[in-house]
Amino acid sequence: MKELIGKNIVITGASSGIGEKIALNVALQGARPILLARSEDKLTAICENINNQFHVQAIYYSLDVSDANQVKEVFAKIYREVGFIDILLNNAGFGVFDMVHEASMTDIDRMFQVNVMGVIACTKEVLPSMLERNRGHIINVASQAGKLATPKSSAYAATKHAVLGFTNSLRMEVSPANVNISAVNPGPIETAFFTTADKSGNYVKNVQKYMLSSEKVADKVTKLMIRPKRELNLPIWMNWGSVLYNLFPGIADKLVGGILNKK
Ligand code: NJP
After folding, report:
1. For a Cys staple, 90 with which of 57, 70, 96, 119, CB 3.0–4.6 Å?
2. 263 inside domain
3. Active site residues
4. Is the CB of 123 under 6 A from ligand 1?
5. Rounded to the nearest whole angstrom, what is the distance from the C-alpha of residue 66 to the centroid of ligand 1?
6. What is the CATH number of the domain that holds 57?
7. What is the whole-number distance in angstroms between the Cα of residue 110 and the centre of ligand 1?
8. Threshold 0.85, pTM exceeds
């Protein structure tokens, strides 16, 4: 995996879950992880851990991706202090699973600010330099929920559908350049995500047997950094569900609606 040696890899949402695991993975491969999130205490500990274990100099910047001004300032600092960014992993995100009639507008607005506007804002900061250098890779963590919406996650699914729409359009826009654009669409992963998303614990209980480990997802995303492709769907069989849904949406709503009601 020597392809990642010396690469500068910016990871949003690096203080926990798959972002943290991917930071460790890329450091093991000799890349320099640049960690972004709001929890400075966690980022400090992760950087120390990486720098003690591997021959790289991981660094972090505190950032709330929903704050467009902060995004501009932090990326300007990264470019000043590090010089260039090879890979941007837009991974920061969260969900709150509620029925529409019970969901708070504050939660919905916040999900859009972080999951959608955060991705767009960070992408806009790296694109000019990547296009000028004619190299780079932007990876957006969407979700299987961005392909197949399920009950009790309308707002979260809407944000991830938006991330996929943005990603697919961006890929076409930059296609003349040597800049890769990928989407990662996981099913449920065992992370702290569900502490906020699934307060009742029903969903975690119902999908326990399908849960992906954060290590497995991190390994696949690390491989995606080495061999870019348009989409990474995990587990692959879950993607067949969305293919079938697109072919027979009306039938699927009626027949599968109940099966997909796990929350
Ligand atoms: O979740 P978790 P995951 N500004 O909670 C950060 C998607 N996904 O690793 O700011 C900046 O362990 C937060 O950092 P902090 C999911 O939608 C997941 O599972 O310090 N950062 C933390 O580092 C998300 O896009 C599942 O609180 C902000 C990280 O985000 C991605 O995977 C399934 C932030 C969240 O780590 C990683 O989630 C799926 C902000 N405003 C897609 N708000 C799943 N787990 O089942 C949060 O399909 N963060």
Report:
1. 119
2. no
3. 156
4. no
5. 13
6. 3.40.50.720
7. 13
8. yes
